[in-house]
Amino acid sequence: MSLEALKSEVPEYAKDLKLNLSSLARETVLDDQKKWGAFLAAAHATGVRPVLKAIEGETADKLSLEARSAAKAAAAIMGMNNVYYRFVHLASAKDYKTLPAKLRMNVIANPGVDKADFELWSLVVSAMNGCGACIDSHEAELRKHGVSAEQIQAAVRIASTVNAIACVIESENAIAA
């Protein structure tokens, strides 16, 4: 499956999502590894089968095995961290901020790809999951690595479009069931 096949599953009322998907696939502000890793991390964060299949297929020859693994790892670890740190951030009791997380996060220290790429993919998933604390943390790290606001915005645009397509497809599948 490919992005073209995925677009064919998006109903006409969501035409803007198809257009955005096409333009983001041609985005040049991100190098290919950052861009396609963002697509893959976002797809895994949705967990929606047609989205996963299409983006897995599209990225198969665009990303190394290490990059593919790291993008998936970013989705996995942020799936955990976003829940935990969103709780810590939103809880009225402030003592949670001083307690150690006691959650294994070894992949963050050694993701197998350039640190900035992994941070970008972690930001993509954090934006999708709505964790402000994680967004701030990853955005600050990206800036330290010289990633521009335009590059960060492009990655988040990918996340928002992939997420919206997943929501539309799930909604349409729910109606059809």
Task: Explain what the structure shows.
By secondary structure, the protein is an all-alpha fold. It has a single domain (3-176), classed as AhpD-like (Up-down Bundle), CATH 1.20.1290. The protein contains nine helices and no strands. Helix 7 packs antiparallel against helix 8. The protein is globular and about 50 Å long. The chain starts with a helix and ends with a helix. The mean pLDDT is 96. It comes from Hyphobacterium lacteum. The active site is at 131 (proton donor), 134 (cysteine sulfenic acid (-soh) intermediate). Residues 96-164 form the Carboxymuconolactone decarboxylase-like domain. Keywords: Antioxidant, Disulfide bond, Oxidoreductase, Peroxidase, Redox-active center.
Short summary of the structure?
This protein is mostly helical. The protein contains nine helices and no strands. Helix 3 crosses helix 5 (65-90), helix 3 runs parallel beside helix 7 and helix 3 runs parallel beside helix 9 (149-176).
